[in-house]
């Protein structure tokens, strides 16, 4: 075989250039896909944090509404008990008056 040094050097350079281009392209694609996956993971984490904060806010608002509702219900129930007590007291007074007049001798 008659191979010149010039051909050997050109062939070696071509193989080196091809492998360099191939490896550099693969490296960029992997880095890019890894960076993309990392960015997606960061977005997911941020969304989870926001959802957790929103849920905590909703729970605290619900607790405040329940607390306010319970206080209002207690006040309403207290007022109803007072009215019922007044009505029972008035009815008792009327009954006592009727009993006095019924027992009192007629003139």
If you had to describe this structure to a student in words, what would you say it looks like?
- This protein has 107 residues and is mainly alpha-helical.
- 93% of the residues lie in helices and 0% in strands.
- The protein is built from one helix and no strands.
- The chain has one helix at 5-103.
- The longest helix has 99 residues, at 5-103.
- The protein is rod-shaped and about 155 Å long.
- The chain starts with a helix and ends with a helix.
- The mean pLDDT is 78.
List the main descriptive attributes of the protein structure presented here.
single chain; 107 residues; mainly alpha; 93% helix; rod-shaped
Would you report the number of β strands? Answer: 0
Q: What's the helix count?
A: 1
Give the strand content. Answer: under 5%
Order of helices and strands: H
Major sheet attributes: none
Estimated radius of gyration: 46 Å
Which consecutive residue ranges, at least 5 long each, have pLDDT under 50?
none
What is the share of helical residues? Answer: over 70%
Gross morphology: rod-shaped
Mean pLDDT: 78
Kindly report how far apart the N and C termini lie: 158 Å
Structural category is mainly alpha
């Amino acid at each position: 075989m008659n191979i010149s040094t010039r051909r050997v050097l050109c062939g070696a350079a071509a193989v080196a250039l091809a492998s360099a281009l191939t490896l550099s392209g693969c490296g960029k694609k992997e880095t890019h896909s890894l960076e993309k996956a990392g960015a997606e993971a960061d977005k997911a984490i941020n969304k989870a944090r926001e959802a957790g904060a929103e849920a905590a806010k909703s729970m605290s608002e619900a607790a405040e509404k329940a607390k306010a509702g319970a206080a209002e219900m207690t006040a309403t129930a207290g007022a109803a008990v007072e009215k019922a007590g007044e009505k029972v007291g008035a009815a008792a007074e009327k009954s006592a008056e009727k009993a006095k007049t019924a027992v009192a001798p007629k003139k």
